[in-house]
Amino acid sequence: MKLKYLWALLLLPLIWLLLMAAVAIPAIGHAKSYIKVVQGDYTAQSAKSSADLLTSDINRAFALLNAPIAKQISSLLGINFSSIKDEIQAGVATGAVLAGADKPKKYLIAFQNSAEARGTGGILGAYAIIEFNNGDIKILKTGSNAELKWNTELTIKMPDEFMRLYGKNPAIWQNSNLSPHFPYGAKIWMANWEKQFGGKLDGVIAVDPTALSYILRSTGEIRLKSGEKITSENVVEETLKTAYERYEKDNDARKQYLVEIMNATAAKLTKGEYSKVKMAKALRDGIKANRILIYSTNKDAQENLATVKLGGNLSLEANNEYRTVIQNIDASKLDYYLDRSVIIESKSCQNVKQTQVRIRVTNTLETGVGLSAYVLTRADKGKPASLITGAHRFKVFIYGPTDAKLISVSRENRTADLGGSSVERKRPIYVADVDLAPGASEELLANFSGGVGNITFIDQPLVLETKLSIQDKC
User: Fold this and answer.
1) What percentage of the chain exceeds 90 in pLDDT?
2) Residue 101's pLDDT is what?
3) Three-state DSSP state, 420
4) Which of 70, 280, 293, 450, CA to CA, is 20 to 30 A from 77?
5) C-alpha angle 122/285/74, rounded to 5°?
6) Rounded to an integer, what distance in angstroms lies between the CA atom of residue 14 and that of residue 28?
């Protein structure tokens, strides 16, 4: 095999970027015919035919790249994309429709603020409406959550178990994504948009400041009107920590600051001012960390997305998947400082498996003294009469596998309410209320029976990644 052909194979994963961002794609296999479909030479049959051929090329390429020498080279150069092979294939299968090859598509870009935790990551802080048309991208509108109206009733009907678990709270834009099942939040956001602004959307794409930091590796620094430089190294701290200090007395200005950062980044992307290789790596890293999520109203596209990480699904299929989810209930921005350590351990490998999940949550803040009142907000009901500055209250949800059973729970703080149990999409859940002073931590434990296959874990994308240990003995 010639060296130049090997390099062509190593560039295969760029197809995902190229379909979604509408730039020239590597000249391999059937990619040229596929891009013609994406750019408007579209029929359902031509899209399926070219996607099937390209998927076959990708499968062969990954088979070759799994050879020891090729694998070592790609890993050494940081261009090993095997971890998102399924996402690449889903991108090929759905790319033409998502990119507006059949007709223009409008999407809500939800910029999640992970300093205030929600099921899919964080609250919706800023947003954009974009349009894909034959692969071209246009920014139609940007703004912050300050302009989003407060709803008292859900704008769409949700399942009964959803209502029992979350009530009407998701009617509010900032609470629409309480569930870790991304399609729920996406559908509510789209319904909210239609109610407030009119017009239907074709889907939702969610990202967060950490995903933005990955993207800035490819675009390089952006400059704001003030002359401030925002880079991949400082964007998370600037948006989720420093901005609260700088704009302590003007929260609307802080939100506009976020919108300006989003607009400056979008300007570079729409002009194609980025490294394609670095962008492919950024998308890979964002997908792996669950920091890039996509929902589509197109039935076929959504069925493909639902099978991979990009869809953010709580799957109903048999699995041995666990999750630990933080829900901020005091309206503070203290999840910036929240550390999570999770140990998942097999306890029995009989016909019905038994698995234990332990999570230790730690408020890494040394002291809350000096932080802005907005960051320290305690808007929770039933809060203590005497509050410790910097104390953070939140709920911990521990999810078991589909059709499993929650058999026992415990918590380190025996004086606190033990918590309760619930179910979401056939998953048993242990739910507990936690209140941590600066420097404090607590461990919660849940035992489950059931699960099929190897133990897996889906991390909730907050500022600090979960420290994970899986001890699968079965």
Assistant:
1) 69
2) 75
3) strand
4) 293
5) 175
6) 11
